[in-house]
Amino acid sequence: MLATELVGDVARAIAGPGMQVMPVKGALLQHWLYEDPAERPMTDVDLLVRPDDFGSVVECLEAAGYRRTRHRSVGGIVMETPFGLALDLHSQLFDCARYRMPTADLFARSSEDHVLYGASVQIPSPLDVYAHLIGKFGSDHLDGKATARLDEIARMETRLDASPEAVARHLVLCGMRRASRYVLPLVHRAVGGGFALRVYDSLPFDPMGRGVAATANLLLAGAAPGALGGALVAHMLNDSLPRGVHSGARALLQRARRSGRDGANRAGPRGPLGGWRRNAARRDGL
Q1: Digit-coded pLDDT (tens) for 96-142
Q2: Do 137 and 147 fall into the same domain?
Q3: What's the predicted TM-score (pTM) here?
Q4: Which residues contact 244 (CB under 8 A, 6 or more apart)?
Q5: Would residue 285 count as lying in a domain?
């Protein structure tokens, strides 16, 4: 299993300086949710490190033969690896304006494991994994046709040693009361079972949130992947409308900056200013 080998290799590469790594998404779900990890295909591996360690982790990995690419991800970079899988290295799971899952809290709630990957890694709390899957479904502005993603959310019930009420409280803590109102009914419709609906029913009273979820259902159904309108609707699923406006504005600004940098890269150097722009883009990891 290449993903497992990659996680272990990263963990060993950064163990000397005393830094920690946390597998998220597929590299963890392969082991948690599937009898045969090969059932969960992967093209990249997502790992989370503390923001203060991020630069040192990248340096350790480059010394071990990893190479950063021009692609970027939320709070991180993408690296080529010796395993044929890309490494998506994050310092945060979501932009700071979207939801409330700070990296420090995720590591504080995690537990150390030496067996799963043959090296010391921090395993996230199942409650945090459940919240991350729900939040990511919303932030990717998916709809009910994304059945594989909905199925994984449903499968997480087997890992949650908590009542629906406790799960709902954790989702609220993570800023996902409205994302959950959108996603959990989709999980129930796609997979069945009653757990998702019991969590939904345990969410706090929020008539505006019900309206936001209904609007998202209407506007995200069939939206083209990457469409600007779908992305803006997805920001409505943030914890409140002010936070949604804030995260949406940040996303638009970041998109404009990426477009400007990409345009400068394609144009190439045109005198001193063009060269400065190209070098700045390189420093930003683009």
Answers
A1: 888 999 999 999 999 999 999 999 999 999 999 999 999 999 988 89
A2: yes
A3: 0.87
A4: 235, 236, 237, 238
A5: no
